[in-house]
Amino acid sequence: MSLLxxxxxxxxxxxxxxxxxxxxxxxSLNVTGVALILSTLVGVPLGAFLGxxxxxxxxxxTALLYTGMGFxxxxxxxxxxxxxxSVGPLGHLGWLFSVKAMIMAQTIIAFPLVxxxxxxxxxxxxxNLIQQLKALGATRAQAAWAAIxxxxxxxxxxxxxxxxxxxxxxxxxxxxxxxxxxxxxxLTTAIVLETRKGxxxxxxxxxxxxxxxxxxxxxxxxxxxxxxxxxx
Amino acid sequence: MEKxxxxxxxxxxxxxxxxxxxxxxxxxxxxEIFCLLGPSGAGxxxxxxxxxxxxxxxAGEVYYGGVKYTKENFNPPLEIMREITTVFxxxxxxxxxxxxNIIYPLKIRGQKVDREEVMAIVEELSIAQLLHRPCxxxxxxxxxxxxxxxxxxxxxxxxxxxxxxxxxxxNNIRIIEDMMTKYMEKKPTVVWITHNHFxxxxxxxxxxxxEEGRVVEINDKENFFTNPSQKRTREFLAGxxxx
Lengths: 232, 243
Hints:
- The complex is a heterodimer.
- Chain A is mainly α.
- Chain A has one domain (about 5-230): MetI-like fold, CATH 1.10.3720.
- Chain A has helices spanning about 5-15, 20-50, 60-70, 75-85, 100-125, 125-135, 140-150, 150-165, 170-175, 185-195, 200-230.
- By secondary structure, chain B is α/β, with parallel strands linked by helices.
- Chain B folds into two domains: about 1-85 and about 160-243, Rossmann fold (3-Layer(aba) Sandwich), CATH 3.40.50.300; about 85-155, no CATH class.
- In chain B, the strands form two sheets. Chain B has a six-stranded mixed β-sheet, with helices on both faces.
- The chains are: A mainly alpha, B alpha/beta.
């Protein structure tokens, strides 16, 4: 199939909202969305805690977090696979080759990114302000919350980083999800499959959609950032 | 009438590498402005941080409200912490509106905002026109007035002022001094660090001179400036000691 024909097919599939394409989009958004929410719920408080608290062993925890930020997703996929396999410690859950397994793997990939960038953002908050809040009667939790709000642009960047890390991820979701049509097939795994099959038109459609989702998500977050910047 | 004691300090020591603050005996009373004078590095800010329980001493005792606090238990209950506040030299404001900054202490206490009371402080400090402005756009004097308003809205019993008027123009200095004079009607304990002798004369009830972590002299205002008991104080006032 020529490139032009592939593009024509891509446009046709997009315009007709092909059920196969729509299903894959929905699974992708579901997996990435839930994983991003979970990693934000874990990563932001963890990053804020690390950014605001000194405790013995903090350098080790921080080093582990930074390692997690650079961990190859496919290796995380492998660990998740082993955890969820029938002989693994979480095998009894029966999650392997399901959306739940994919969400689990993507959460593990994203949360170090969210936590690490949040930590850096919170650490950059003026220490005088933290002291001042305590001197105004803030509890530790209230001061921490205020620090997160002060570092909101950085926290937003951490969530964008987490999103970027998982929306484009292919190795881990392929391993633990199995790329099952109508069940665990997402945009990235579908691109791999369709390219291998020579269905370049479909692969291009998925590529365009993936780019569009990433672009729109980042644009939305940028809007939030700019609103915040203009509010200053 | 007998003066009510707020703080008593006994044998206080705070050690840093190359510096030791040592205060053998100091009593602070309700309803007074206690001015701290002394050169940079004398230990004035360290003392303030200890009085606000933000920093624990190396040794010694701090009595607040009759309760003894030492290195071992230097974390008073939240309700005690919420009686004390500090206004720092460099105002540290939240990146929010002036109004949100001012009512922050009330919000964290879960208190209802009494708009009339807040506005009385706001008017006194001439910041009513700034209420909707983001704090990042304020001048130094405006920011310090906002910081003071925020410190006063919850009616603290102890106010620790760490050079609040340093680098401010005379008009801002006057507004802040007038506000504090008015707030003294509530009989708080105020510790006011200043490098300005004239300001200490204007606002202080008792004056303390600190030098190299030691108290040189504590005296009432009149005696401190007209008849100091220590030679070092006379030298300090004459500008011979440090300048």
